[in-house]
UniProtKB/TrEMBL annotation, chain A:
This is 1,2-phenylacetyl-CoA epoxidase, subunit B. Pfam families: PaaB (PF06243). NCBIfam families: PA_CoA_Oxy2 (TIGR02157). The lineage of its organism: Bacteria, Pseudomonadati, Pseudomonadota, Alphaproteobacteria, Hyphomicrobiales. It comes from the Bacteria.
From TrEMBL, chain B:
Its EC number is 1.14.13.149. InterPro entries: Aromatic_CoA_ox/epox, Ferritin-like, Ferritin-like_SF, PaaA, PaaA_PaaC. The lineage of its organism: Bacteria, Pseudomonadati, Pseudomonadota, Alphaproteobacteria, Hyphomicrobiales. Signal peptide: none annotated. GO terms for molecular function: phenylacetyl-CoA 1,2-epoxidase activity. GO terms for cellular component: cytosol. The keyword NAD does not apply. One of its GO terms (biological process) is phenylacetate catabolic process. This is 1,2-phenylacetyl-CoA epoxidase, subunit A. It comes from the Bacteria. It comes from Pseudovibrio axinellae.
TrEMBL record, chain C:
It holds the Pfam family PaaA_PaaC. SUPFAM superfamilies: Ferritin-like. Gene3D superfamilies: 1.20.1260.10. InterPro entries: Aromatic_CoA_ox/epox, Ferritin-like, Ferritin-like_SF, PaaA_PaaC, PaaC. This is 1,2-phenylacetyl-CoA epoxidase, subunit C. It comes from Pseudovibrio axinellae. Transmembrane segments: none annotated. One of its GO terms (biological process) is phenylacetate catabolic process. GO terms for cellular component: cytosol. It comes from the Bacteria.
């Protein structure tokens, strides 16, 4: 197999105004314009989108799952960040 | 998808750490999803690459039998529906190749495996579509069987595969309905049209049942796949579900199914059915189905005829990148 | 009666869309890569949509009870009035892309102008078709540029397609009695009024693609009068086969 690989792009789509872009999938394309068009043709055939981002897959930096402990566990003990940590006096109905 | 750099299958070759294996199985048992960069046993990765790419190849080769009728669709409405349906299958192939790519193989490698005959695809697509009702019967029976297989895959333990399947299943129900609708329209029509429908169902019924794979007693991949929650029902269980769902639909349609052993078991509520011709099944898998060679020839031709197009796009991109960095 | 002119006008546009979508449909499952397979089908689906609306409207104007399928599947070669350009075969991807580009570069300003037609149906269709044609033009133009400025092979192929298809572009700008009578009523578009836009698009894209615009020479004609290349009959044969074989059947 001698064929050179066509780059991979990640596709993010905003379904409606007011929502953030969500990862929809990926496409292969030689350049950004073709990736954008492919994303439109592949991922918005049923009116799924109002805005598209394409990002070269190679440009995404991910954390190593083995670092899960140091990355994410420290937050678990900080329960005081959550509103349910605090008990309100009965007299206060809402806050 | 995401960084492939972290996917290093080589690291996982050789003897695997018992502790890691146990932790992995525990995650699966807790119904946690496994994501591409997580540690996974080499055999799990291998099984997934094989299954997802085989699934992707099936979607892509599956475009051909229906594509056989695009230029001959008998109305503009049916032509549009058929094109949209086949296009979806191409999309499914694309989603699935992407899911497989998260495991560290490139689409180019996977396509190469298909075109060199190293990878398999569903045997159903090696049967010909001989009359227009075949297009309807494919939608009703073949997509119907595929949906039975695919719905449990939405809960598959591997995240990217499960997400691709959720997207695919959303699109699939249109496929089965348009097929059934096409057949209903033909059954309301002339005697010739009704004959076409019966003929198509007679030819496609058994191959559709074979889509669930060999009987449980002969299936070699099932045990591991069940343990890893890649698969959640056995071949025979899914086949039974399909038969139970389809028999009443055949009644409504007003056609007969070509199985003299088909009868309702009042106690279990299940439709008992005859045994598919497994010799035919294995023979088709071996490459001797009526369309195997033609399907491969068509895929190879499309790939080879397209090589200069893909090269041109890459050459242009390289030139533009060079210009940009020079500026 | 103007109705005859309007009927003919709609049928021409419908035939253009129907025949070109038939050509694009031939790619389904056979394109160079999955992304492009899906893209070409999207264009085909848009065009089938245009054809269906236009045939239906033409059938209403005619008032003889012919629906979209009667008009598309029960006429012979000589009754089809599409442009010769759209019936040209898919010799390779370059032919398909150049054919699409030359056509869409015309249809984009055409539908844009049609949005102001006094005919409400045509204006309504134009509002939708204009957006679709914009995308068809973008997609095909970007490919023309990539093939023209890609490899030596792709350059030669797209150049061959350009040189071959060029002689069919003159037909888009023909203005016969049918068109001029409807232009006078502000229903139809005078094709010469958008020629400068077509020229501009074509020139800009060809420059970016390193392609030379062919010198003005003989332009083929005949499609609008039902005088076609030999290809049309081969398009209609499979396309109409079921409708012709089972004329009483509904599908
Ligand atoms: Fe599918
Ligand atoms: Fe499907």
């Amino acid at each position: 197999m001698s064929e050179q690989a066509t780059p991979l792009w990640e596709v993010f789509i905003r379904a409606r105004n007011g929502m953030s872009h969500r990862h929809a999938g990926s496409v292969h394309a030689a350049d950004a314009e073709m990736a954008l068009q492919a994303a439109r043709d592949v991922y918005t055939r049923r009116g799924e989108g109002l805005s598209i981002w394409v990002v070269p897959s190679a440009a995404i930096i991910a954390n190593d799952p083995d670092e899960k402990g140091e990355m994410f566990e420290p937050t678990a003990s900080k329960i005081y960040r959550h509103p349910t940590f605090y008990e309100l006096p009965d007299e206060v109905a809402n806050m | 998808m995401y960084t492939q750099a972290l996917n290093n299958p080589a690291v996982e070759a050789g003897v695997e750490d018992e502790e890691k294996l146990a932790a992995f199985q525990a995650r699966i048992d807790r119904e946690e999803k496994i994501e591409p960069n997580d540690w996974m046993p080499a055999a799990y990765r291998k099984t997934l690459v094989r299954q997802i790419s085989q699934h992707a190849h099936s979607e892509v080769v599956g475009m051909l039998p229906e594509g056989n009728w695009v230029t001959r669709a008998p109305s503009l409405k049916r032509k549009a529906i058929l094109l949209a349906k086949i296009q979806d299958e191409g999309g499914h192939g694309l989603y699935l190749y992407s899911a497989a790519e998260t495991l560290g193989v490139s689409r180019e490698e996977l396509v190469d495996q298909l075109l060199t005959g190293k990878a398999k695809y569903s045997s159903i697509f090696n049967y010909p579509t001989l009359n227009w009702a075949d297009v309807g019967a494919v939608g009703w029976l073949v997509d119907g069987a595929a949906i039975m297989n695919q719905i449990p895959l939405c809960r598959c333990s591997f995240g990217p595969y499960s997400r691709a399947m959720i997207r695919i299943c959303k699109e699939e129900s249109f496929h089965q309905r348009q097929g059934y609708d096409l057949l209903v329209a033909m059954m309301k029509g002339t005697a010739e049209q009704q004959e076409m429908v019966q003929d198509a169902v007679n030819r496609l019924w058994w191959p559709a049942l074979m889509m669930f794979g060999p009987s449980d007693k002969d299936s070699k991949h099932s045990a591991d796949s069940m343990k890893w929650k890649i698969k959640r029902f056995t071949n025979d269980e899914l086949r039974q579900k399909f038969v139970d769902a389809t028999v009443p639909q055949a009644k409504v349609l007003g056609i007969s199914l070509p199985d003299p052993d088909l009868k309702l078991n009042e106690e279990t509520g299940h439709w008992e059915h005859g045994e598919p011709d497994w010799d035919e099944f294995y023979n088709t898998i071996k490459g001797n189905g009526i369309c195997n060679k033609q399907r491969m020839k068509d895929r190879i031709k499309a790939h080879e005829d397209g090589a200069w197009v893909r090269e041109a796009a890459q050459a242009y991109a390289a030139k533009q990148a060079a210009k940009k960095s020079a500026a | 009666m103007t109705d005859t002119a309007l009927f003919t006008y709609c049928m021409r546009l419908a035939d253009d869309s129907a025949i070109l979508s038939q050509r694009l449909g031939e790619w389904c499952g056979h394109a160079s890569h999955l992304e492009e397979d899906i893209a070409l089908t999207n264009i085909a689906l848009d065009l089938i949509g245009h054809a269906r609306e236009l045939y239906t409207y033409a059938g209403q104007i005619e008032g003889k009870g012919r629906d979209e399928d009667a008009l598309c599947f029960h006429r012979v070669e000589r009754e089809f009035n599409n442009l010769l350009l759209v019936e040209q075969p898919n010799d390779d991807f370059a032919y398909a892309i150049m054919r699409q580009f030359l056509f869409s570069a015309f249809m984009h300003p055409f539908w844009e102008a049609m949005m102001n037609s006094k005919d409400e149906q045509l204006a309504g269709l134009a509002a939708k078709a204009e957006k679709e044609a914009t995308y068809h033009l973008r997609h095909s133009a970007e490919w023309v540029i990539r093939l023209g400025d890609g490899t030596e092979e792709s350059h030669n192929r797209i150049n061959n397609a350009l040189e071959f298809l060029w002689m069919y572009t003159g037909e888009m700008f023909e203005c016969d009695e049918v068109v001029s009578s409807l232009v006078a009523k502000e229903v139809a578009i005078d094709p010469m009024s958008i020629k400068h836009l077509w020229d501009e698009t074509v020139n800009t894209v060809l420059v970016r693609a390193n392609l030379e615009r062919p010198t003005e020479s003989w332009m083929q004609t005949g499609g609008r009068k039902g005088e076609h290349s030999e290809h049309l009959g081969h398009i209609l044969s499979p396309m109409q086969y079921l409708q012709r074989s089972f004329p009483q059947a509904q599908w």
